[in-house]
Amino acid sequence: MTRKRGQASRDGYGRTQRQLRVGEELRHGLVAVLARGDIRDPELEGVSVTVTEVRVSPDLKNATAFVMPLGGDNVEAVAKALNRAAPFIRRMLAERITMRYLPQVTFIVDRAFEHGHAIDRLLHSDRVAADLARDDDDDASGSGDAV
User: What pTM does this model have?
Assistant: First the structure.
């Protein structure tokens, strides 16, 4: 099936290729700005922040940056401090990224790490191990009967 003229290609989440490119460019810029340590906020003093993803709105005027401080300490305080420093960060991004209009950036704590740990704990729980052991026993007993 061919695309019609003017129809944007979309990923599985409804974002266009342009949104994905701009989001990735913003993520790289944010990493560079945060790594320099120019933000003078007591909440961010000595804190290393990971920017996992940047999602951009369809009109490219707003961006949401998903962040997580290294070690996972004071996540809410770090997100609030980054949102307070957002105008300064945007100004620093403007020096690094060439765009006609730079989006407003909002920082949100990335909960994907917590979800990943919860799934990992579930997969390593005794209940799942018992189910896997029972499946192994069924496979071992059933394999000798087939001819």
Answer: 0.72
